[in-house]
Design brief:
eight-stranded parallel sheet, alpha/beta, Immunoglobulin-like, TIM Barrel, Rossmann fold
Length: about 650
């Protein structure tokens, strides 16, 4: 965890419609500040301007909320109450969502190519639908005036949180004129996307410069809703990174573990952001189970980040007592863990390449979801990196199937393997786009297209421990790989009688296995391996544990001395961090269950009994002690073969084992 950011934050939404008549009428500064202190909060993001476009401080601007009495100075009182208690107060300003501006200046609203407005329609009433403002229009100047007033009034500010900042294509007259000046074609959707990206980069640079001049320095600035895959070029606009991921709000429980492994590699401190809501934002009266919030925050600190919990303030200005009872319990655990976690960084052994141009969200059943689920279940400690990144410090590089290798990247990976690194080409696209040299390193002498769309895999029991006694259906097609001399083929290809068709089928599903081929579905040498099918997507889509067995066998050949060896159940999440004179093992044990059509619910920690773990030591000398936190209880251990081994039984959901 980085000590550079407050680690127990609140993101206090206050999107309050103009029909609310009694804004801030019950606000009590002392009660507000004391409730935050009691909840172990050390930073809270407070609202200057919401999506409705209204302002919540003393101003003569007409956007001031009409239900906020002139004698109520809400934001001023909130900031003073917090600062007097040592609580930081970054300020929130909505960017592309502004109902007041959209209604006052409808010409500023983004337009679709068919002439309709982007976002909420005139009689639209869908949740999370807002009118979307065009940052090519004079609205950008209107927003700059608001930013100037906020920073000038409250400087020095602890931070500015600018929300709803995605790339938004538009064909407004301002956007069209700007595209023409730039030599872009407004009728081309790719050019509209290029212009949208250019506009966003332009206003981030503009507002950063404005804030710096007004504040005297650039505070913690974050442009929310930007694609995390843009961080390579956009990290320069931020002082920290926030990963918004409400698991029950549409993000799911794999979004944060994926994106944190990408975001933490840009040299900036970072926090995760979840919320106290049972579902998503503005879920008044909705409270997630205490175990769920503790699980989500434990994931954040286990991956080296600070924590932020989203809440929405009641219009009258009173914090929700049930919400802060929930938050206090979870943040007490975080604060106790900080005593050993601050100043540590994640320790990783593998790099998984990720296409920066791909969608940064996780598609259910897709390759990225499979990356998280499969590698997390195998306790592999990994980061996600761009194909052009430096991978020299990693023991293994994995190329998933949704990454296409350029000749330049293939050449760099060949040099990496020549220098002692290990490589895995994890799918047909990765194999086919790799250079002939990389394929040869992976033991592939030839590549052919499969005859069947539903082939079977025959595992080699000498390679795959506990392999099934029968052929396993692959469900998806695989390449025919010819194994080179000296390569091992953990899985061969068996064809069915035929693929199912309208005029030829057998039973309810695929035809049974019939004809073994001479081809392999997987090959591996001491230096590299290749999968002829997308193992990650297959695992995410079909959930076959046999695919995990197969992947584990290949992984064991490429990484014979992994960072972690454990008998952990597959729901447990194990991660390693390192700091001065110590190594940390985080053990997070919760099991989300799908209990509604759309919600994964966590109501209790999942107990661990007799978990045996061995951590590869970072020094040749034996450790002096192993302790379990929170609490600091001594843990018996052994030291053999370069591994520190111990046993853990726990029912508290998150344990931090400190090896010193």
């Amino acid at each position: 965890m980085s000590p550079l950011l407050p680690t127990r934050q609140i993101h206090l939404d206050f999107h309050t419609g103009p029909a609310i008549p009694d804004v801030g009428t019950h606000f009590n500064p002392n009660a507000f500040g004391d409730a935050l202190l009691a909840a172990h909060v050390n930073s809270i993001t407070l609202f200057a301007k919401c999506h409705h476009g209204h302002l919540y401080y003393d101003t003569s601007r007409p956007e001031r909320h009409p239900g906020l009495s002139r004698n109520v100075h809400l934001l001023e009182g909130q900031i003073e109450a917090c600062r007097s208690r040592g609580i930081k107060t970054p300020i929130y300003i909505s960017v592309q969502c502004d109902e007041y501006a959209a209604n006052t200046h409808p010409e500023w609203v983004c337009r679709n190519p068919d002439g309709t407005n982007v976002g909420r329609k005139p009689l639209g009433n869908d949740p999370f639908q807002w009118q979307i403002l065009d940052m090519s229009s004079p609205y950008a100047d209107f927003l700059a005036e608001q930013i100037a007033e906020v920073v000038g009034k409250f400087k020095p500010v602890d931070g500015i949180f600018l929300d709803m900042c995605w790339d938004q294509p538009s064909v407004s007259k301002w956007a069209v004129d700007a595209m023409k000046r730039a030599g872009l074609d407004p009728a081309d959707d790719r050019d509209r996307a290029r212009h949208a990206r250019s506009v966003a980069v332009g206003y981030m640079a503009r507002y950063n410069d404005q804030i710096t001049k007004l504040n005297g320095s650039l505070p913690r600035v974050w442009y929310n809703s930007r694609p995390k895959t843009n961080l390579a070029s956009e990290a320069k606009f931020a002082r920290h990174i926030e990963i918004e991921a409400l698991p029950t709000g549409g993000w799911g429980y794999t979004y944060f573990p994926l994106n944190v492994r990408w975001a933490r590699n840009f040299g900036l401190p970072f926090i995760g952001m979840t919320a106290r809501f049972h579902k998503s934002w503005s879920d008044f009266g909705g409270y997630k189970p205490p175990a769920a919030l503790k699980y989500e925050l434990s994931q954040m600190i286990a991956h080296g980040g600070g924590c932020s919990v989203g809440d929405q303030l009641h219009p009258r200005g009173v914090l929700d007592p049930e919400a802060y009872r929930l938050i206090a319990d979870a943040y007490a655990h975080v604060e106790a863990c900080e005593k050993v976690c601050l100043g540590t960084t994640p320790l990783t052994e593998a790099a998984v390449l990720r296409d920066p141009d791909a969608d940064y969200s996780i598609q259910p059943g897709g390759t990225l979801e499979g990356v998280v689920r499969l590698l997390q279940q195998l306790n592999l400690q990994f980061d996600l990196l761009a194909p052009t990144a430096d991978v020299s410090r990693y023991a293994l590089v994995i190329v998933p199937d949704n990454v296409t290798l350029s000749p330049d990247v293939s050449a760099r990976l060949s040099a990496y393997v020549a220098g002692g690194g290990k490589l895995m080409l994890a799918g047909p696209n990765a194999v086919k786009s790799a250079s002939a040299e990389l394929r040869a390193l992976a033991g592939v002498a030839g590549v052919g297209e499969a005859e069947s769309k539903t082939p079977f895999l025959r595992f080699d029991p000498a390679v795959v421990a506990g392999s099934p006694l029968s052929d396993i259906v692959a469900y998806d097609s695989t390449l025919y790989l010819t194994a080179a001399a000296g390569a091992v083929a953990p899985a061969g290809v068996v064809n069915p009688y035929f693929d199912r068709a309208w005029d030829r089928f057998c039973g309810h599903n695929q035809s049974p296995p019939a004809t073994p081929t001479t081809f392999a579905a997987v090959t591996v040498t001491e230096r590299a391996g290749a999968f002829g099918f997308d193992a990650f997507k297959s695992f995410a889509t079909h959930g076959q544990y046999a695919i995990r067995q197969l992947f584990a066998a290949v992984l064991a050949r490429l990484l014979p001395t992994p960072l972690i060896r454990a008998t952990s159940p597959t729901h447990a999440e194990l991660s390693v961090a390192t700091g001065p004179g110590r190594t940390l093992l985080h053990v997070v044990s919760y099991a989300p269950q799908r209990r509604t059509p759309t919600l994964d619910i966590v109501e209790e920690a999942t107990p661990l009994v007799g978990l045996k773990v061995a951590i590869r030591a970072q020094t040749a000398t034996p450790p002096t002690k192993v302790t379990r936190h929170p609490g600091g209880a001594a843990v018996p251990f052994t030291f053999e073969g370069g591994y520190v081994a111990f046993e853990l039984s726990s029912n508290q959901g998150h344990d931090v084992l400190v090896i010193e």
